[in-house]
Amino acid sequence: LFQAQDSTGAVLASISATGDLTVETATINGTLTVNGNATINGHVISGNTSGSTTAATGAAADCSASGLANISGNDTAGTITITTSTGACAAGTLATITFANAYGNAPEVVITPKDANGASLQYYNGSATTAAFTIDTGVGATASTVYTYSYHVIE
Questions:
Q1: Does the predicted TM-score (pTM) go above 0.85?
Q2: What phi, psi does 36 have (nearest 5°)?
Q3: DSSP letter string over 83-125?
Q4: Residues near 16 by Cβ (< 8 Å), separated by ≥ 6?
Q5: 48-83-117-137 Cα dihedral, nearest 10 degrees
Q6: Tens digits of per-residue pLDDT, 16-25?
Q7: Which CA distances in Å does 29 have to 26, 32, 49, 139?
């Protein structure tokens, strides 16, 4: 019914008589709302449009001020590596992950250990707000130890 073509005649976009829309490449600078099912025949790749997602150690990993928290990821998914300080720490917050861009509502956070050390702790998502979430532990972490977790966040 309708087609948009480039200078070589290749179809860039089309709308069929039944309302099916086919687009070669699309950039949406706003909100996309899908009322119905979405089928994705490929990977879902997320990224921040501005800013950086950050991680900082909490009291359960930094009881002697030498703990580290590093992040490789964005507001939607990534990996957090926490290295505890040299002193023994009590249970509590291992790390706080701050979003580059706040969510509209507090999101759901899924945390999964990526190593045996991470799995050995009684880890959990202690809190999730529109601006950040925490990884907490119910037991004291071992001094000078690396704990690695994956996270996935969805509102």
A1: no
A2: 140, -160
A3: E--SS---SEEEEEEE-SS--SSPPEEEEEESSHHHHHS-EEE
A4: 1, 22
A5: -80
A6: 888 888 888 8
A7: 10, 9, 10, 45
